[in-house]
Every structure is written in structure tokens, then in C-alpha cells.
Amino acid sequence: MKQIRIMPGRIAHYSLAWIVAVIWLVPFIGIFITSISPLKEIVHGWWGVKLSSISFKNFIGAWSHPTSPIGQGMLNSLIIAVPATIVPVFFASSAAYGILRYRFPLRKTIFLITLLLLAIPQAMVAVPLFQILKNLKLINSYLGLIIVHTAWGLPWIILFMRGFFSTLPREVEEAASIDGAGPFKTFFRIILPMSWPGLASVSSLQFTWVWNDFFLALIFIYNPVRMVATQRIPLLRGQYHVDWGILTAAALLITSVPLLVFILLQKYYVKGFIGMASK
Questions:
Q1: Environment class of 218 (CB within 10 Å of its CB; exposed 0-12, middle 13-18, buried 19+)
Q2: From the CA atom positions of the chain, what is the Rg in Å?
Q3: Cβ(72)–Cβ(137) under 8 Å?
Q4: Tens of pLDDT along 172-186?
């Protein structure tokens, strides 16, 4: 009979992982129970809620709130997040491939500037961006916020995709060149299909960051009808009364979208990071 070896290090590792998981889950469980419970039962703590009182009225109330409906806010967020993900991923991937594979004047300088742009905080450029969009008459418009998010996402996506492209075998590109494929055909027909894990990784991250944005949306969007989902959560609070069930339900509704995106792209997301890190 084979003897089973008990490794203290592995036991400690898994025990620590379970402790961290429980610590992370407890607040989430509290938020979820609060969202499906009536206000009169959660004022003394969510752990005392009765199962017979559970309902999803708070989700319905948050979705179609009379003054700040989360449903409309999530639609507005989608209108901004989808193009603000597709556009920068496409242009940044093209730029990253060009910087990596081709030699041209100021190539290293352009890449260095791209790296330096990552260090600029949003608060530093908020006022200049506001003035620029105001002069272009793009304040309080979806297009203005899409442009800002696109510009903000380009540097880090270029850096990420350049690292991912460097892991791809160059022999495939050389074979395509021998067969008569030009640079554009090689990029769109060979490189991009091979780079789907990397593209999925940056797309999920960019979408999540745009979706969760509050700072830039607060500066450039002030029309109540066009406010995004994150802007509407503070508006669910009354002046003299706070319905925590409505607030937590709204937070879970907003969180569900990037969580769904991550679940759908999880396989490619992990492959993208592993591929970039393996170089």
C-alpha cells in the first residue's frame, strides 16, 4: 500500500488560500443578502435576515428607479464601453505590431513616450481634457467620453500587445511573406487570429475599466439622461433616507456585466497572460 505523504507546506498554502477566500466572500455574501432582504430586517444586521422574507424586489426597484434607473445607466455604459474597447484594441494592436516588427525613424522614442504616458494620472489631465472637449463641443456626449477612454487605453494596450506579439513565432510571418502575403494581409489574416488570447485579455480589462469608470464620466457627462451606471448609484440615496437594499442591488447589477465578460473570456484571458509572461 502506497504511503501518503503529508506536506506541511502544501497544507499551509491551501489553508491560507481558503482563509483569504472566506474573508473575500463574507462581504459579498452580506451585500447579496442585503440586496434580497427588506429594509426593516437589515437595519440590525444582514446575518439576522429570515429566509421567508427574501425577494428580488430591490433589483426591480433599482433597475427602474423613478429618479435614477440603473437599467438606463447600464445601457449608457454599454454604449460607451463597447466602442471604447473595440477601437483602442484595434489601433493599439496595429501600433504594437508595427513597433515590434518594423524599423522606422524615432521607433524607440515613440515606444518610450508610450511608456511614459502610463505614468500620467487622470486627475492631472482632467482640466486640459475638459477644455479640449468643450472647444470641440463634445462635453456631455457619448462620443467625447469614448474618445477619452480610447486615448487612455492606447498606451497600456500597446505595451501589452507588443509583449504578446513577441511570443509569436516569426517563422510563420516569414512563410507568409514567401507565399506573397503583404504586411497588412499577414497582420489581419495570420497574426490577429493567432493573438486571440491576448486580444481577449486586453479587451476584458479595457471593458472592465471603462465600465467601472466614475471619475471621467463625472467630469464629462452631467445630463441625467446620459449618466452611466456608476454615476447613478450615489443618486439612489435619498436626502433623509437610504435604502440599502436598493443600493446593494444596484451595485450587484452593475458588477454582473464585467463579471459575465470575464467568465466568457476566462480561458483566453489566462492564456493571454501566460503567453506574454512566458517570453
A1: middle
A2: 24
A3: no
A4: 888 888 878 788 888
Single pTM value for the model: 0.85
| Alpha-helical regions (H) of the chain | 8-35, 39-42, 57-63, 70-81, 83-101, 107-117, 122-135, 142-165, 170-178, 183-186, 192-194, 196-211, 215-220, 229-232, 244-277
121, 250 Cβ separation under 8 angstroms: no
The pLDDT-based confidence of 1 (bands split at 50, 70, 90) is: very low
Number of residues written out for the chain:
279
Q: 233 is in which domain, residue-wise?
A: 70-277
Are 32 and 84 in a shared domain? no
Rounded Cα distance between 208 and 226, Å, is: 19
CA 262, CA 207: separation in Å to the nearest integer? 10
Cβ 245 vs Cβ 58: under 8 Å:
yes
205 within 8 A of 276, measured Cβ to Cβ: no
Please give the tally of structural domains in the chain. 2
Residue 93, domain member (yes or no): yes
The CA distance from 84 to 112, in Å, is: 24
pLDDT digits (tens, 9 = 90+) for 183-216: 888 888 888 888 888 898 899 999 999 999 999 9
SS3 at position 241: coil
In a domain, 3, yes or no: no
Q: Do 44 and 117 sit in the same domain of this protein?
A: no
